[in-house]
Amino acid sequence: MIRSLVFTLIAAFALCMPAYAQDDMPPAPYAYTQLDDPVLEARALELMETLRCLTCQSQSIADSDAPMAGDMRHQVRSRIAAGEDPEAIRAWLIERYGDYVSYSPDVSATTWPLFAIPAVLLLAVLFALLRRLGRRSGDDEAA
Amino acid sequence: MRLAYAIPLAIFLFILGLGGYMLSQPKDDAVPSAMISKPLPEFELPPATEGFAGASREDFVGGEPKLLNIWASWCLPCIAEAPQLEALKEEGVEIIGIAIRDKPEDVAQFLERHGNPYTRIGADEISSLMIEIGASGVPETYVIDGAGNIRYQHIGDIREEHIPLLLAKLGEAR
Predict the structure, then answer these.
(1) B67 DSSP β-pair partners
(2) Chain A contact for B32, CB < 8 A?
(3) What count of other Cβ atoms lies within 10 Å of the Cβ of residue B39?
(4) Does A137 have pLDDT greater than 80?
(5) What is the count of structural domains for chain A?
(6) Is B37 on the interface with A (CB under 8 A)?
């Protein structure tokens, strides 16, 4: 019974394997290697944590082990090492993939509601609160 | 019912309805490239295997529109796509391949097994061109016009039903 179950599981995994087929190339030079200069590495890491991995879309490229995330880390680290500004690298990626690639959105034609809605809600709450407090102090006077 | 209770209820029902609607929609996590209608970036890649020329931007400039096919020997949908690329080649379309993170011997074996629709194959070992043109997966196919501009992006494997659209896009790019 148990043996057949184990066998079925192994067979199922064997069938699943090709779905996970990935290249067996060594990673890009700076995919898993930090920059020698700790200041530059910190700058690169800060940027990598706010860039989306495009093959595993809810992770940042700093968190992901997908080969493409490694290749993106290589781009970020080698560009930082060459003296590029982190925000210039972000802009370079947004130019290719759109706002979606960045976890740190700028105000743009598509993202402005993100910034406007909380402000509007806060104002509405403030307005309701003032009105209610105002009414209550009015009641006190009447009593 | 008092309005004060009706508003949260209405918001709740709206969110519930939105959730139900989104569940009924097919999942689409393809990331479209923002490089469409922009020039193909400058690049130069060495040959991916013996007997082929590498690929560069210059290979797309001048002459008929061409297809740039991003693929890899380790990619399963690329096997499904191979006969469709063959069909496009038979229609007279020039296809330049870019092999992503691939080994020369694996590329050769794939071509032997599934046919060769390419005139050139460049080796992109660190996905540099892939990132340059805004591709987020393998396979993807781009229509490049004779002036070297990116005109159209097809995400995922090309199936039989996509061929007329690709031929039409190649015609438009002429």
Answers:
(1) B95, B143
(2) yes
(3) 15
(4) no
(5) 2
(6) no
Number of inter-chain CB pairs under 8 A, A vs B? 66
For the cut 60, the answer to whether the pLDDT of residue A17 exceeds it is: no
Same domain, yes or no: A56 and A101: yes
| CA distance linking residue A40 with residue A24, whole number of Å | 29
Q: B107 vs A72, B64, B134, CA distance in Å?
A: 23, 26, 23
What angle (nearest 5°) sits at the alpha carbon of residue B31, between those of residues B26 and B35? 140
- Residues of chain A with Cβ-Cβ distance to B42 below 8 Å are none
Q: What is the ipTM of this complex?
A: 0.87
Does some domain include residue A127? yes
Please indicate if any CB of chain A lies within 8 Å of the CB of B42.
no
Q: Which residues of A touch B132 (CB under 8 A)?
A: 96
Residue A97, pLDDT > 50, answer yes
Judge contact between A32 and B126, C-beta under 8 A: no
Cis peptide leading into B26, omega within 30 of 0? Answer: no
Residue B47 carries which DSSP code? B
Task: Look up tokens 């689409």; give the residue.
Answer: B28
Q: Which of B101, B125, B132 sits opposite A96 (nearest CB)?
A: B132
Task: Indicate if A102 and A116 belong to the same structural domain.
Answer: no
How far apart are the CA of A7 and the nearest CA of chain B, in angstroms? 26
Domain that holds residue A90: 27-106
CB pair distance less than 8 Å for B125 and A25: yes
**Residue in B35, B103, B127 nearest the CB of A96:** B35
User: What's the CATH fold of domain B33-172?
Assistant: Glutaredoxin (3.40.30)
Q: Which two tokens stand for residue B125?
A: 């070992």
